[in-house]
Design a protein that fits this description.
With 638 residues, the chain is α+β, with helices and mostly antiparallel strands. The protein has 19 helices and 32 strands.
Amino acid sequence: MIIGTAGHIDHGKTTLLKALTGQEGDRRQEERLRGITIDLGYLYASLGENDLTGFIDVPGHERFVHNMLAGACGIDCVLLVVAADDGVMPQTREHLAIVELLGIRRALVALTKIDRVEPARVQAVCEQLEALLQPGPLAGAPIFPVSSVTGEGVEPLRAALLAQAETLRKRSEDNHFRLAIDRAFSVTGAGVVVTGTAFAGQVRVGDELTMSPAGRSVRVRGLHAQNQKAEQAQAGQRVALNIAGDRLSVEHISRGDWLVKPQLQAATRRIDIEFTLLPSEARALKHWTPVHIHLGAQDVTGRIALLEGECLAPGGHVHAQLLLNAPAHAVHGDRVVLRDQSAQRTLGGGRVLDPFAPPRNKHRQARLAQLRALSGETLEDILPALLPSALNGLEPALLERQFNRPRHTWRLPAEALEISTRVGTRLFDRGTWDYLNESIIVALQRFHEQQPDELGPDRDRLRRYALPLVERAVFIALLERALANGQIEASGPWLHLPGHRVRLTDEEEALKARLWPLLASSRFDPPWVRDIARELDVEEEQVRQLLRKLARIGALQQVVKDLFYPEQTIRLLADQVLQMERQAGVIRAAAFRDQIQLGRKRSIQLLEHFDRIGFTRRFGNERKVRQDSALASDAEVR
């Protein structure tokens, strides 16, 4: 268990810990000279249990609240210390507010220095403390009058702390390892050592970790858990890690960095949260207010953007987005505390809902619905509400990082579908998937009614027509299933409902029989419309109209005006392009010209046609094949 102190300066926090543990908390020379705690102090002692309990002694001075926050982020139980002679003071209230915002729900209150006051004063301050705690989640926390000088009340307090340790729910060890770094130093002969509280998972000597948000890889050379040498450590412990990495030094590490499993590495600057403004605030919080953001052990500046309204009244709750001035690491459920721009007072705080938030004001109402779904506690609580609104599905890898839940621990809802796409697996609600599929069928039917002379759209046109908000990879997965099920048919690149055909008249069939040999026999250099008309002694417009109709039904492709290639010839040209890319890595116009033995102008026309139909993508004077294009996929089958 990790126990952290809280309370006003000079209320006896460090002295009380010495009475409880027999160890000195203030070890820095400056702290001893000044008689106050400046930075975090760490003690380890047994309260009577087998394992050591970790104690974090935090500074009480208002100038060092940022240090207090860095230590309080990982504690299991708070020991609120209030001196009997002073009673409740400003930092008592601020520290208590921070503890509540951090979601800490285990607390004991130590009423110190009772040897300096009369019993009546002790009773009066006890009543004051009960009134202070009453409105919040720590109401009813037991109060222990103690004297660190005489020892009175210390044993009952120690017994109460031990009882807390025995009832503490063990943190999950199945999740990926995360440790919030609050100290980094160098040890002669060992190298870099970092310390912090393990938020989740396990770590062993030899493990490869990532320093987030920088993304630097490190290896664990050795470790101490709860101040004892060990081969492994786990969530809920104070851990010291001796780490090594390429050119790693203490200067590369800052308080607030994280050590995480590589699966969790994904820095962010935009975080959506549920936020509460403290009732003690004198005025409303305005949208876009600059703030200090405390997340884990990190203190970073940024702004808060309210997602509902332009201001928030004291005591109010709202969904908000944090725009950070430096990258950070977070997962769903992490607690965040906000202080004002000058870091003089605590404004409020809340819980991380989405550490990888999209830009705000984009589909606002739909986004707010997603955030309401994300307000649940666990992934299992959230998925049933989140999946139905996810038109593009949910990425398992992103969910794993967002919730720090390894894939093998998930329990998916009965209505969840796992769909393979060309960019990986996506999770869909069965009803949403069926709705998307039906939308394609309905859109095709509407297209046929509006364009009876066209066989159908190609797939990119159909996506824009039917489901413009759906990602291309998801749309292709939908389409492939519809094609496999026979709900849609393909004629060349054109998609249509079964039975839909654009039919030629008898006159058009007769003209097609005459001109088709001219197109097929000329290989990569088919005749122009005017040449066909002259050869067959037919009006140009008649030939042009027939060729356009043949293009609509998928028999031809129009490369430029009045120049049509049979579909089979286009496929042969596509094979030439694929062969060129396999050999040279890229497609160049000059090489393509030499390979098909046509002039530069025609070669450029063909390559630009491939760009338009999505077979290739141009980069300066070179091109690459789009591997998800229909022609590339068909070539693989061939």
